[in-house]
Design goal:
The protein is of the alpha/beta class. It is about 45% helix and about 15% strand. A six-stranded parallel β-sheet has the order 7-6-8-9-5-10. A two-stranded antiparallel ribbon has the order 1-2. Helix 7 crosses helix 10. It is globular. About 35% of the residues are buried.
């Protein structure tokens, strides 16, 4: 049973390792044989050992975990693959390096920046996750909220977004404001549904333990003993961002996520995220984690698309490629 989890459905995990590392893998019984160039074979051994460690902890494996293990083995996330004590390998897939959201489901980091982000969320009351779409900023923050809620460390989970696009594109839809902006908040619902059963989500929304609302609804409130996530923060105005950050009450954690290159505010409006990045950079208790295209955990083509757009945009500006 454990070996089948390692191999994946129809040996999909082995085939992925073969394609990426240019090795040949076969298995008989409980043994996996690796053939190829010495360096590639060594990398494949490290990857399989890492995944086997995860399986033995009764943790699920997906292609995403396989890809993360390959990045780690190649040293692509800032660690050396030949650590004699295997301390970095162990920490990468250990439960302490991720979020345990129920049963055997553990959300593990898939890049060095994701690991730094997880550590920051665990150690700081306020964290900014900044970077392009698909880097796990929102999903990992939601996973942190779910873990802390289930551990009894917080009483509520509050998720909010600026309703900029809703005002432009959904204004003619029927229903009240919450019904109009529901499609815009759908990514948060999607993340929750990956981490919790749907009936639990509905029940906790009914009793107020989960709240999903537009940013404007935060005004005038003091948020206590909660995990609060402001998503798509680049579309908050400077006044909205200040309003949101000052809602923080006793026992509350805040995570702010956004991509400063994707601002949908009207021309001339200052992005609250961009301003906060400047104003709060010297506040030691606030942590800023920056992601880039190497952290993208969607289809591998997404990171190439992001990189191509960055190259095109900065070439047109005459400034050269971005290092952020």
């Amino acid at each position: 049973m454990l070996l089948s989890m390692l191999l994946g459905e129809h040996n999909a995990h082995l085939h992925y390792i073969e394609d990426v590392l240019k090795v040949s893998l076969s298995h008989r019984g409980n043994e996996v044989t690796i053939k190829g160039k010495a360096k590639d074979v060594k990398l494949a051994e490290i990857v399989i050992e890492m995944l086997w460690d995860k399986v033995r902890r009764d943790q699920d494996i997906s292609i995403g975990e396989v890809e993360a293990a390959i990045k780690f083995a190649r040293g692509e996330i800032g660690h050396e693959p030949n650590d004699p004590q295997n301390t970095q390998k162990q920490s990468f897939f250990d439960e302490k390096a991720g979020f345990k959201v129920g049963g055997s489901k553990v959300i593990s980091p898939r890049s060095h920046n994701q690991q730094a982000y997880i550590e920051a969320i665990k150690q700081h009351d306020m964290v900014f996750g900044i970077g392009p779409a698909g880097t796990g900023k929102t999903f990992l923050a939601v996973a942190a909220a779910v873990e802390m809620y289930k551990a009894g460390e917080i009483d509520r989970m509050i998720f909010t977004r600026p309703a900029v696009e809703a005002g432009e594109q959904l204004g003619f839809l029927p229903g009240d404001l919450l019904e109009k902006i529901d499609p815009y908040l759908r990514p948060i619902y999607d993340s929750l549904h990956e981490l919790m059963p749907g009936d639990q989500i509905a029940k906790k929304m009914d009793n107020g333990d989960i709240e999903i609302a537009p940013l404007a609804f935060m005004r005038g409130r003091t948020l206590k003993n909660a995990f609060v996530i402001l998503d798509e923060a680049q579309n908050s105005t400077a006044m909205q961002m200040k309003m949101f950050l000052t809602r923080m009450g006793e026992g509350t954690r805040m995570v702010v996520t956004g991509d400063p290159t994707q601002v949908d505010l009207p021309n001339g409006a200052t992005s609250g995220l961009k301003e906060a990045m400047t104003i709060l950079q010297s506040v030691r208790e606030v942590s800023f984690i920056h992601f880039d295209e190497t952290d993208v955990v969607r289809h591998k083509l997404v990171s190439k698309i992001i990189n191509a757009y960055n190259t095109y945009e900065f070439r047109g500006s005459g400034r050269g490629p971005s290092k952020s």
